[in-house]
Fold Box C/D snoRNA protein 1.
Amino acid sequence: CETCSKEEAKYRCPRCMKYSCSLLCVKKHKLVLSCNGVRDKTAFVSVNEFTDLNLLSDYRFLEDVGRTADAAARHLAMHGSTTKRFLSSLRNKAQKCNIDLRTLPVGFTKRRENSTTFNSTENKFYWHLKLVFPHCHAEYTLKRVPDDKTLADILKPYIDPVESDPVVCQRLKIYTSSPHSDVRILMKIENRRQNSVRYNELDASRSLLDNLKGKIIIEYPTLFVVLKTLKNDMVVLGQ
C-alpha cells in the first residue's frame, strides 16, 4: 500500500494509479493528493501501451460526447425567444409570398440543418436548398440561394457540360450527356398519404420563388433532378 506502507495492496486508483489496501487508505490518499478517483479519459497513452481496453474506453468516451452534444441541441434553453421570433418572422414573410413554410420542432435534423434567411433590405429570401440526383445516388446541399435565381442557373454548376465542375460532371455523367429537354425538376408534395406520393414538376426557366409559390415547404426545398426517360415511379401530380 502506497499510503500506509504496511498492508498488501488490494486496490489501484483509476485516476493517479496509486495502490491502496483498504477504504481508509483510499480516502486518505484522495485527501492528501486532492485526487477525485475518477479515471482521466483523455490521458495520453503511448502506442506501445495501447490495448483493446483503451480502444473500448475511447469509443465509449466518444459515445458520451455525442450523447451530451445531442442533449444540448435538444434542450429548449438553447433555443430561446429570439429563435422563435426569427422563425415566426420567416414564416410570415413566406406567407406574403404565397408559400406555406412550416418548421419542425427542435431536435429534428432538418431544423438543425436549415440556414434559410430573409434579407429585409433586399426583400429577398436566401434559401437553404438540397438537390437530389437519384439516377446517380448523389445529393448536394446549397446555402444562401437567392429566390430570384432561375432553376436552370442553379443547376448549371452540376449538369451543364461546359460550366459544371469536372469532378461533379464526371459523377453526374448520365445527366451531362443527356439533352436539356430530357431533364425534369420535381418537388415532393407534402401532406399526402404514404401510399399516395406525388411530385410537382417545376419550370427550370422560372425563378426559385415563382416555383415555390402555392406550395408547402417543410424547413427548406428539396429538388429531385430526374431524366424523362428514367423517372421510374416518381408520379407527377395530374398524371
Notes: The chain has eight helices and ten strands. The chain has a mean pLDDT of 86. The first strand starts at residue 11 and ends at 12.
